[in-house]
Amino acid sequence: MTEKLLEVKNLKQYFNIGKPKEVRAVDDISFDIYKGETLGLVGESGCGKSTTGRTLIRLYNATGGEVLYDGVNVHGKKSGKELKEFNQKMQMIFQDPYASLNPRMKISDIIAEGIDIHGLAKSPKERLEKVYKLLETVGLNKEHANRYPHEFSGGQRQRIGIARALAVEPEFIIADEPISALDVSIQAQVVNLLKKLQKERELTYLFIAHDLSMVKYISDRIGVMYFGKLVELAPADDLYRNPVHPYTQSLLSAIPLPDPEYERSRKRKAYRPDIHQYEDGEDVRMREISPGHFVNCSEKEFEQYKANYNHKK
Ligand SMILES: Nc1ncnc2c1ncn2[C@@H]1O[C@H](COP(=O)(O)OP(=O)(O)OP(=O)(O)O)[C@@H](O)[C@H]1O
């Protein structure tokens, strides 16, 4: 995994600019996504994860910065044809599959929407065959094609959402909290399905989650967001073994452990942003503590983090 699919450079997404309610939902973040990998993006509700995803996929025009997809500026001027191509390459799966599936449409028409828009079937027969195949791919069957969303369970609806995204044969999928609304027992099934599809179709994922429990099983690397900023970015294993930023440590301490003995002794670590005490103009930025492991900090903090990091290793 060395080839970059996306390069996100100093991305900013502000809302209500200049008004009292201005929100800096995404505030100058940079990262890359490599072809075929899953980048997890975690952080508490409101930290800007969804806005990041939506800006990458052009649902919002960026306030600042740049997103390059295969070297092409996503937010740059494009012809209708180019825009359509982009829309086909990037797809999104949503948290609440019920809200994102039109209740009055049959499953076959929901799944085939993208096929129709992009003219991917030459006849109604081919269209239906594609729908059947997609239903099978996500673990459903062709009898489901004529039903409506309310006839399905949450897990099944999420499978339908996945089939709809796959219908246009995308390269990159943003999964925005795809399992948060599902029962824990179903969450693993959906994660496993996404992993299987990734392997078979060489997909690249941005997987958004609000905690660090499930994201571990799917992510190659994980980025942690806090208030519009990326505070840590690391290979998944390294992030779990050696979390550096105090906010990441706090998120990790919130994961319940299956072992009752450990669970009794688990201590939740609260994050206090005022511990940073940066001076005006202090150079606070992402610094690389070990290969591929970045933490947002000042030079002084970096020295402390490094001492601790090496000590733990
Ligand atoms: N269209 C919008 N207009 C104004 N403010 C917005 C808009 N969309 C998001 N925000 C604000 O931007 C911030 C980041 O929201 P965002 O939904 O990206 O966070 P999130 O981390 O994905 O949270 P959640 O997990 O709850 O979806 C929040 O303060 C939110 O209220």
TrEMBL record:
<dbReference type="InterPro" id="IPR050319">
    <property type="entry name" value="ABC_transp_ATP-bind"/>
</dbReference>
<dbReference type="InterPro" id="IPR013563">
    <property type="entry name" value="Oligopep_ABC_C"/>
</dbReference>
<comment type="similarity">
    <text>Belongs to the ABC transporter superfamily.</text>
</comment>
<dbReference type="Pfam" id="PF08352">
    <property type="entry name" value="oligo_HPY"/>
</dbReference>
<dbReference type="InterPro" id="IPR003439">
    <property type="entry name" value="ABC_transporter-like_ATP-bd"/>
</dbReference>
<dbReference type="GO" id="GO:0005524">
    <property type="term" value="F:ATP binding"/>
</dbReference>
<dbReference type="InterPro" id="IPR003593">
    <property type="entry name" value="AAA+_ATPase"/>
</dbReference>
<dbReference type="InterPro" id="IPR027417">
    <property type="entry name" value="P-loop_NTPase"/>
</dbReference>
<keyword id="KW-0813">Transport</keyword>
<dbReference type="Pfam" id="PF00005">
    <property type="entry name" value="ABC_tran"/>
</dbReference>
<protein>
    <submittedName>
        <fullName>Peptide ABC transporter ATP-binding protein</fullName>
    </submittedName>
</protein>
<feature type="domain" description="ABC transporter">
    <location>
        <begin position="6"/>
        <end position="252"/>
    </location>
</feature>
<keyword id="KW-0547">Nucleotide-binding</keyword>
<dbReference type="InterPro" id="IPR017871">
    <property type="entry name" value="ABC_transporter-like_CS"/>
</dbReference>
<keyword id="KW-0067">ATP-binding</keyword>
